[in-house]
């Protein structure tokens, strides 16, 4: 009974974390059709005791899936998952912990976890660490991990892209171009980014530098107008990861025509002010589009929700639910 009571407290505590702190997770649940209000979650916590199999999304291991940089909370949930609930960690849990630690900048601790994993580390867990090396500008660790992943998966184009981004951010133009050349020589193509939105029961899809949409003239005019307004409220485009070899103007032009920006501009033109926008993207949203959307959410009424390859971003009043960890 004591364990049951402790579990109840722990789940309530986790419930509070979900409610108060980690809006990203709430949004994710909402997106999955899961519990969105405190009452609904409370009911699900109770169901958890009677029949855990009926509410998989409420189990503690699901709650450790925090991308909000809540390292301490994540570590505590992780420890209690193993020590209190006797749930043994799977490859997915290890990946989540590595991701959580690495995104928050604890790269060495994250690598230590990979080293002590009882199962063989797979590409996903290494890629989580490589993405974090990109965020935190760790060239040395990035090079090492890229090598490890390419041994496991020689045709992984994303490794080349991340490594070239790491070199670009470090100002190593020559190394950046080298990696891009190697990727091309191997015949490996970057997966094209694709963004889409449903407006008036019709799905509209946009690619980077898309010129095909019939409303492109209006979209470009709207983007230009928005960029002027954003500039006035402090938006400065984030060009750190744009590969070298292109001029500053070209970099900006390219960033301005990312699918997300075209999609958001299109959504704003075609909906009444205040209408929430739901934008979907097949890849991870880039730093500049994330920043752009945060600023947009400062100057428009409604919320903008972006579902990218990593999860949900709920932008409102200049803030994103992921707290800039994604
Ligand atoms: Zn972008
Ligand atoms: Zn976000």
TrEMBL record:
Residues 234-326 form the DYW domain. It comes from the Eukaryota. PANTHER family: PENTATRICOPEPTIDE REPEAT-CONTAINING PROTEIN (PTHR47926). This is DYW domain-containing protein.
């Amino acid at each position: 009974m004591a364990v049951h009571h402790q579990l109840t407290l722990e789940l309530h505590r986790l419930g509070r974390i979900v409610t108060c702190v980690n809006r990203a997770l709430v949004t994710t649940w909402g997106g999955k059709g899961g519990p969105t209000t405190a009452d609904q979650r409370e009911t699900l916590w109770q169901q958890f005791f009677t029949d855990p199999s009926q509410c998989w999304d409420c189990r503690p291991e699901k709650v450790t899936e925090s991308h909000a940089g809540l390292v301490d909370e994540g570590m505590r949930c992780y420890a209690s998952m193993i020590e209190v609930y006797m749930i043994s960690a799977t490859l997915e849990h290890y990946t989540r912990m590595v991701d959580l630690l690495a995104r928050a900048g604890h790269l060495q601790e994250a690598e230590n976890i990979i080293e002590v994993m009882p199962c063989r580390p797979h590409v996903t867990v290494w890629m989580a660490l490589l993405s974090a090396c990109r965020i935190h500008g760790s060239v040395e660790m990035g090079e090492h991990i890229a090598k490890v992943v390419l041994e496991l998966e020689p045709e992984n184009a994303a490794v080349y892209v991340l490594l070239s981004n790491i070199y670009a951010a470090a100002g190593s133009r020559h190394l950046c171009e080298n990696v891009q050349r190697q990727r091309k020589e191997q015949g490996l193509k970057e997966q094209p980014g694709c963004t889409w939105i449903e407006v008036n029961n019709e799905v509209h899809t946009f690619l980077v530098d898309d010129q095909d949409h019939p409303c492109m003239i209006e979209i470009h005019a709207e983007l230009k107008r928005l960029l002027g307004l954003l500039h006035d409220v402090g938006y400065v485009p984030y060009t750190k990861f744009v590969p070298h070899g292109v001029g500053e103007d070209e970099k900006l032009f390219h960033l301005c025509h990312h699918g997300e920006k075209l999609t958001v501009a299109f959504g704003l033109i075609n909906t009444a002010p205040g209408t929430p926008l739901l934008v979907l993207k097949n890849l991870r949203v880039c730093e500049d589009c994330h920043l752009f959307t945060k600023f947009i959410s400062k100057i428009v009424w409604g919320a903008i929700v972006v579902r990218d390859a990593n999860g949900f971003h709920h932008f409102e009043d200049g803030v994103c639910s992921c707290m800039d960890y994604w």
